Amino acid sequence: QRPVVTALVCVSVPGKVKMAACALRRGLLSSVTKYNNKQARRVLSVLDIEVNRPRAPCGVGGLPCGAQPRRSMSSRVQCVMVLPVFGRNRPEGKILETVGVFEAVKQHGKYETGQLFLHSVFGYRGIVLFPWHARLYDRDITPPVSDSKPEPPGAHGSKEVKGKTHTYYQVLIDTRDCPHISQRSQTEAVTFLANHDDSRALYAIPGLDYVSHEDILPYNSAEQAPIQHELFERFLMYNPAKSPPFTPRDTLKAWQEKNHPWLELSDVHRETTENIRVTVIPFYMGMREAQNSHVYWWRYCIRLENMGNEVVQLRERHWRIFSLSGTLETVRGRGVVGREPVLSKEQPAFQYSSHVSLQAPSGHMWGTFRIERTDGSHFDVRIPPFSLESNKDDKAPPAGYTF
Q1: Which residue has the higher pLDDT, 194 or 85?
Q2: Is the four-CA dihedral 217, 218, 222, 228 of positive or negative sign?
Q3: Range with the lowest mean pLDDT among 193-197, 205-209, 263-267?
Q4: If 0-12 CB within 10 Å is exposed, 13-18 middle and 19+ buried, where does residue 176 land?
Q5: What is the three-class DSSP state of 211?
Q6: Partner of 219 for a Cys bridge, out of 100, 192, 276, 338, CB 3.0 to 4.6 A?
């Protein structure tokens, strides 16, 4: 069910459509390659464009065309430009429908509210609601010698990491794409405890996600409602005089201001072990009172990405959870959220969310994932340590928040 660019199936379509598909491929190549050549090849590989296996020239800029998808033609074909129309009377799902046109990837600045995009890793269509300015703690970046401090014996992996500002986005996922990404990424990306009359209520909002700036492949569309989601028309309105032509309604601003303590993305942690990159984003969910004590809840979103060519599978998790109250808990188990995902070159990423509670307003988590190779050998992938901090209910909206 992975996304495949339409240019890969243009062998069986008429000449004019074939030329258009190749033009689309050229546009994707040029716009993404301007951003970063290495990133472009990774993105194109995810989208199943075989850039290293050229076929007969198509005649448009000398670009190869006619590459065949590695799976059967009945697999779902998805692209920002052309998407299939499914129906009971169309079992093969080969009818294509124009969706939009790619835009140049932004190397500087940020995308605005209303920007349409294709997710470069999971392939779904989405639209930007608003940006967040997060602190990215990347343990793969070695600090300058002058800034680094010698680690004491036995303190492997405890190096101090300096955060840098990075842009992430709150986005809506097109519900038509949710069934096709559910095995690779959870679509219930926002959960929080109510701070209203019923303190026991737990809210979950499906079809929301947090997307890094480099995950976005922007496009535009002439449709007035290009994204199907129940919140789309409540949050956004069509305004052809603007660019992008979808502007925020007052309801979106009110929703963000009301729920910003539970929506806010402040810290992102990243570390790579043997080509397996783990990214962790913690979110504070709120506090509950239970048996004359306070219980604080957090959600943490984890993405695993296979940056290499070897096929591997996640088998076990091992967590250490430290609470400011002085307790240290160890958690071991098979897989994550009931799954043992396989990470391959064709399906390189898996994303999920889970929850943790502490009887203290702050704490820390860290751990490892046990990964299995195809030959049966194992290795441990480090989960970067991250802090669990509670937000104050009266906290002001973050300074980086703008429409």
Answers
A1: 194
A2: positive
A3: 193-197
A4: middle
A5: strand
A6: 100
Lowest pLDDT segment from 88-92, 320-324, 325-329, 342-346: 88-92
Contact by Cβ (8 Å): 92, 74: yes
Q: What is the DSSP letter of 68?
A: P
CA distance 174 to 178: 7
Q: pLDDT tens digits, residue range 291-320?
A: 788 889 899 999 999 999 999 999 999 999
With the CA atoms of 195, 197, 202 and 203 taken in that order, what torsion angle do they form, in degrees rounded to the nearest 10? -80
C-alpha distances out from residue 1 to 75, 345, 349, Å: 6, 15, 14
CB atoms inside a 10 Å sphere around CB 297: 20
pTM of the complete model: 0.73
Beta-bridge partners for 356: 298
Long-range contacts formed by 196-202: CB under 8 A, 24+ apart: 199/288, 199/289, 200/288
Q: Which long-range contacts (CB under 8 A, 24 or more apart) does 39-48 make?
A: 39/214, 43/120, 43/217, 45/345, 46/3, 46/120, 46/121, 46/123, 46/348, 47/3, 47/4, 47/5, 47/79, 47/120, 47/123, 48/2, 48/3, 48/4, 48/5, 48/8, 48/346
- Tell me which DSSP letter residue 344 carries: -
Say how far apart CA 66 and CA 80 lie, in whole Å. Answer: 18
Nearest to 170 by CA among 301, 337, 305: 301
Nearest to 173 by CA among 221, 206, 216: 206
- Cα–Cα separations (whole angstroms), residue 195 to 199, 311, 320: 6, 44, 29
